[in-house]
Amino acid sequence: MRPAADCTLDDIPEWVAIFGACPACERGEQIYKSRLVRRFGKGALLVQIEKKLRCTKCGGCGANRFALKKIPRD
Ligand SMILES: [Zn+2]
Q1: How many domains does the chain have?
Q2: Ion ligand 1: residues, CB < 5 A
Q3: Distance 66 CA to ligand 1 centre (A)
Q4: Given CB 3.0 to 4.6 Å as the disulfide criterion, which of 11, 24, 56, 70 pairs with 7?
């Protein structure tokens, strides 16, 4: 897989979960791809969306990062 920063939403397979990580409060929250697609469009680069992320806990923005995790399949 390419580095997350170079991916568009359309590049992320269904079996990969997107997490937003806030360095200020170390909160990690799953972000549903469908919500991001609706807001930014499926061709949006993750690195561009990162800049617009806002932490739902402390309200911090600008330094949040995405993390991609494979969803275990039974
Ligand atoms: Zn935070």
Answers
A1: 1
A2: 22, 24-25, 27, 55, 57-58, 60
A3: 13
A4: 11
CA distance linking residue 24 with residue 67, whole number of Å: 16
29-72 residue pLDDT tens:
898 999 999 999 999 998 888 888 888 888 876 678 888 889 88
Domain that holds residue 40: 4-70
Distance 38 CA to ligand 1 centre (A): 23
Helices (H) and strands (E) in the chain, counts: 2, 3
**Spacing, Cα 63 to ligand 1 middle (Å):** 10
Q: How far is the CA of 71 from the centre of ligand 1 (A)?
A: 24
Q: Is 46 helix (H, G, I), strand (E, B) or coil?
A: helix
